[in-house]
Write a structure and sequence with these properties.
248 residues, alpha/beta, two-stranded antiparallel ribbon, 8 helices, Alpha/beta fold hydrolase, AB_hydrolase_1
Length: 248
């Protein structure tokens, strides 16, 4: 079913899909930079959802502000307000009936958001899955590099066009430089599954390796030949790792 959640005057739009059982676990899925909740059947998150449904796990996924069908300008999007989006979705999910456990699944920038949300709400998150989490975005911001578009890190522009033509706001870049990603993430002590491709050219696998160092209860899986979206033969491997981790 379609879901609309208000957050600071914006409407976040998403999809809630539940099994026909009295009690169930639910996974909140968070997409990456410039992405969406997964409207195409070939999308990574859409396929994760399909696999989870086969195992009787409910899902809720949504477009972050400035993305997909949600309100807001992409130029106003930051990691900070995406965490606020995630907080609103988590609050909504916690109030749903029939819920046993809540899982968080984040891909790329959504992985950063999920990791920090779990660090802020460790008592509500039963398990955490990070797919190619883009924690290197802080290092890139400090260097003045946004996915191949360079800028002066000490003289950040008010707006910066990406290679795909979107406009990123200067506040996104400024806050990225000081984001305490790992410091907040490590406050989560529950089980974590880290999945990263060794052929990822968008986010280096060192991001997941660093997460593995700071977490107390994590497992790291490096998928051979895996791209940032885990395309081709890497996709079934990634999907199996996610479902196995949440199922058992």
């Amino acid at each position: 079913m379609d879901v609309e959640i208000k957050r600071d005057g914006l409407i976040l739009r998403g999809l809630l899909e539940t099994p026909g059982t009295d009690k169930y676990d639910i996974a909140i899925l968070m997409h990456g930079f410039t992405g969406d909740l997964g409207y195409r059947k070939t999308d990574l998150l859409a396929q994760v959802v399909q696999r989870l449904h086969e195992d009787g796990i409910a899902t809720i996924r949504f477009d972050f502000n400035g993305h997909g069908k949600s309100d807001g300008r992409f130029q106003d999007m930051t990691i900070l307000n995406e965490i606020s989006d995630g907080n609103a979705i988590l609050t909504f999910t916690r109030k749903l009936p029939h819920i046993r456990n809540i899982f968080l699944i984040g891909h790329s920038q959504g992985g950063v958001v999920a990791s920090m949300l779990a660090g802020n709400y460790p008592e509500y998150i039963s398990k955490l899955v990070l797919l190619a989490p883009a924690a290197t975005l802080k290092d890139d911001a400090l260097k003045g590099d946004l996915q191949g578009v360079t800028y002066q890190p000490n003289h950040i522009p008010d707006a910066l066009p990406t290679q795909k033509g979107q406009i990123v706001g200067g506040f996104y870049l400024r806050t990225a430089q000081t984001m305490p990603i790992y410091e907040v993430a490590k406050q989560y002590k529950g089980p974590v599954c880290l999945i990263h491709g060794d052929a990822d050219t968008v986010v280096d696998k060192k991001a997941s390796e660093r997460y593995q160092e700071v977490y107390e209860n994590s497992e790291l899986h490096i998928v051979v030949g895996g791209s940032h979206q885990f395309k081709g033969a890497a996709r079934p491997q990634a999907l199996q790792l996610v479902t196995d981790f949440l199922k058992y």
